[in-house]
Queue: 4 jobs
Job 1
Amino acid sequence: MKHTSIARRVTPLAWTLGLLWAFATSAEAVTSPEAMLEGTSQKLFDVIRQEREVIRTTPTRMFEVVEEVLVPHVDMLRMSRLVLGKNWRKANGQQQQRFTREFQSLLVRFYTSALLDEESTQLDKLLDAADKDLITFQPATLSPDGRQAIVRSEVRVPEGAVIPVNFRLYKGTGETEWKVIDLTVEGISLVTNYRSSFSTEIRSDGIDGMLNKLAQRNRELMDQAKNGGKGAAAPGAR
C-alpha cells in the first residue's frame, strides 16, 4: 500500500493535531461547528495527560484513548463512502463494513503513532503546546442548505511552524451534532488523498485484496506501537 503523499509533504504531527481536535468529545451542547472544535479540545488533552504514564509503558493505550473519543464524533461511515467513491457501490455490505472498520483503525493508529516515539518526546511536546495558543479557529462557512460547514484554523506545531488545517463537517437533517467528514492540511485533503491510493489498489488487487493489505498494515502499526514506536512509517511504505 502506498499512502505516502501526505507524509512526504506534511509532518505526521500536524495531521495528528488536526485529527485529535477533530475527533475530541464534549458533554456540552454546542451551537456552531467552530464552537464544537474549540470547546472540546481541552477534555481530550486532559485525558491524555491523565493517561500519560500509562501510555509511556503501554503505547497501545494511546490508540484506545483516541478510539474512545473518536468513534461517536466522526461520521466514519460517510467518510468511508467518500474515500472509496464509486468503489463503495461496487463493494458488498460485508466489504463496506470491513473497510469502514479498517479505515478507522488506520487513521487512529497511523496518525497517533507520530506521538509514540521511544522517548515520548512528541507526546510531551504536544501536551506542553496544548497549554499555549496551539490552534485558532475561524467562524464556520456554511453550505446553502446548512448541512455542511468548513472551519478554517491554524495549528502552531511545537517545532514553530504554522500549519493551515481546514475541517469539513456535516450535520444531517434532524441531527443536532456536527461531525467531521474530512480535513485538509496545507491544501491536502485526507479524503482525496486516500481515495486515489485505494482506487489504485482496487484496480490492481480488487476490493478484497485492498482490504487484506489494509488489515495487514493495521497489524503492523499495532506491532510497532508495542515495540515503542520503532519502525513507524507512512501506511504502505516499505
Job 2
Amino acid sequence: MSGEARRSPGVVLAHGFTQTSRNWDPFADGLRARRPDLDVRAVDLPGHGTATRLRRDLWGSARHLVDQGGAATYVGYSMGGRVALHSALLRPDLVDRLVLVGATAGIDADDDRAARRLADERLADRLMQMRLAAFVDEWLALPLFAGLDDEAAGREHRLTNTRAGLASSLRLAGTGTQEPLWDRLDEIVCPTLILVGADDAKFRAIGERLVGALPRAHLAVVAGAGHSVHLERPELTLDALAAFLDD
C-alpha cells in the first residue's frame, strides 16, 4: 500500500537537544485528548534519556527513530526535526507524514558548516568540564529559548541526561555535522507540515525555503511564539497539527 493511501494511527515525537522524550508529555497528552484514536509515542534520541549510551550520527539516529516508531506520522522539533528529516529520506515507507518544528535541512556553505562543527566541538568540550545543571541553565538562557517559561522549559527532564551523552550528540549529530539535504528534498513526497513561530525570524525564513523545496509541504506560522512553538503556544500548535492530520 502506498504512503499516500495509508493513514497510520501512529504519531512519533522526536525531541530537541538537551531534552528527552518526557519533554513531550504535556503536548502528547493534549494530542491524545483531541485524537484518542492515535497511538502517540515519544522516542529518546541517541545521547538522551534512556538512549544516553547510544552513539549515533544523524543517519544512525534516524534509523534508531524509525526502528522505535514504525509506520507513523513523524513530528520532530529542532534537532529532532533534523533526525525526522533524515528518517523520511532513509525510510520513506515508514514515514507516512512529516512535521518539522523549527528545523533545517542543513548549512549550505562549506566554511559556515565547518565553523559550526568547530563551535559544536568546543561546546561539547566545555560541557564535559561543567556541571550538567549549569550547562542546561546556560543552554536555556540562549535567545532562541527566550519564549519559554520555567514550566515549559522542562528543566527537570533535561537534568536526567548525562554530560557524556549530550557531548556525543553535539559531536556526532550537531548541525555542523549535517550534510546539506536541500538538493534531496524533492525525494520526500509524503505530506509535510512546517511549523515555525512568528517571532523566530531565522527559522521562519528556513521554513519558507523548506516549503519551496518539498513537493507536498505547507507552512504554518504560530502567532506569539518563538523557536519552541509546541512549548510556547501548545494549543495553537495542536490546532495546526490536528488540521494537518485530518486533511
Job 3
Amino acid sequence: MNKHIANYLEQLKSELRDSDKATIQDATADAHEHLSTALVIAREEDPTQTEEEAIQAIITAYGSPAEIAAAYQQAEIYMAPYTPSARKSSNKGLLARFFGIYGDPTAWGGLLYMILSLVTGIVYFTWAITGLSFSLVFSLFIFGIPFAVLFILSVHGLGLLEGRMVEGLLGVRMPRRPLYFPKDKKWFDRLKQYLADKQTWKVLLYLILQLVFGSIDIFIWVFFIALSLSFIAIPFIVSIFNLPVVTLSSAVYFLPDWTLPVIFIGGILLLTASMHIFKGVGKLHGKFARWALVAD
C-alpha cells in the first residue's frame, strides 16, 4: 500500500476512534478504494507528476481525514439500524416488559433469523467446503490460483450479504462496504494478500459454523413453538372433541376441567417466554457476526 494512503487511513481511523467499528470499516474501505484508484489514474494521465504531488492533490479534492470522519459520523445518525429504546422499556412494569416482547421488532427479527439460519447455514457450509476442496485440487494446475482468488472473493461477498441480513433482522450495525483489495496485482500476489488477511479466515470460519448454529436454532425454535402451541391447543381439543390427553393400551386419561385454563395460560406464558429466548439468541448471533464479519 502507498505510504501516503496508509498514513491517511490511519489518520481517518484516529478521527473515527469513537465511532462504530462497522462505520470505521466502511469509511476506510471507501477512502482506500477512492485514493488508490485516483492515484493510478493521475499517474497515467500525467507521468511527470510525482506520486506525492498526485496524492496530495487527490486528498485535497477528496477531503481531509477530519472532514471525511465528520461526514460519516453525520450520516451514521440517519443510517443506524433501528433498535427499540432501552430507556422506554425500563420505565415499564415487569408484566408490561414481559408481554411487550410482542411489540419488539428485534424479537421478531430473531425469530425469523433463526428460521432462515438453517437454510443459509446449509448454503454457506456447502459453498465453503466445496470451494476449499476445489481450490486445493486445482492448485495442481495453472488455473488453480485464479480459481482460489475468485473463491475467496465470493467468501467475502457472502460475508457482506450475511451482514446485511444480520443488520436488517437483528438491528446490529454491520459493514456496508467490502474491504478494499487492489485489483491491479497479479493473481498470485492477490492470493497471498487474501490469505495473509485474517479477515478472510474469520469470514470463512463464520460460513462453516453457520450450519452448526442453524441446526441448533431450528431445534430451539421447533421445541419451544411446538410445546407452547400444544399447551394452547390442548384445552380446545379436549373441550371440542372430548379426547383424552394420554391413551395407553389399557387405559385413557382425561384432564380435569379446572386444569384446562391453567394449561392454556401456561401455553401463553411459555410462548411469550419463547419470544424473549428468540431475542436473546438473536443477540448472540449479532455478537458473533460482529466478531467475524467486522474487520479490526
Job 4
Amino acid sequence: MPPWYSFLAMPRPALTAEQKQEIRKKIRAAASRVYEDGGPGSVSARRVATEAGVSVGTLYSHFGSLSELYQSLWRKPVRQLLAQMEQQASETECPRTRLQTLLRAYVDFSAANASVFRSAFLFVRPEKIAAPTQVALADDRFFQLYRSAISAGQDAGLFRAGDLDQLTQTVLSAVHGSLALPINLHRLALDATQNVPELMIAAMLEWLEKS
C-alpha cells in the first residue's frame, strides 16, 4: 500500500483543449481591461494574472511573453481586415479607385472596431514589453496592398513619379494621422468623425495625381 501522502505527488490531469481555450480567453480579457483601465504603464504579468485570477506561471504557459499576449488581442480582426482588403483590391481594376477603396477600408475599420484599432494601430508599447521584430516593407502584406495600387497608378500615368515606398508611407501617414489625432489630442474638441479622414483621402489622391 502506498504511503498516505502519495497523493501529493500525483500529477494533475491534463487540461482539455476547451479548458485551455477558456483560460486563454480569460487572460486576454484581463489584459484588455488592464490596458484600457491603466494605460501602457499599468501593464505587467503580475497585474494581468491577478486580474484574470491565475498565476503568473499559468499566464506564461499559455502566452510566451507579454508581447505575444497583447498581439493575440487583435490578431484575428486585423487578419480579417487584411483578407477583406485583399479581396477588394483583386476586384478593383482602376488604381485610383483601388487605393481609395483600401484607404476607406482602413477608416471604416477604425470606426467599427475602435478598441481593436487603438490596440493594434495606436498601441504605445511599454518598455517592459519587448519590441517586436520589424518586418521589411516588402514582406508586409498590408503595406504592399497600398504600394501596389500606387505602382499601378504610376504605370497607368495617373500618379506622380517617385519612390514607391516613400509615396506609400506618406499617404498612409496622412490618413492614419487624421484618425489618430482626435484620440492622441483628446483635450482638443477635434472632429472625431470620418469627415476629416475622408477629406484626407481626397487630398492624398489629388496630391498623387499632381506631377
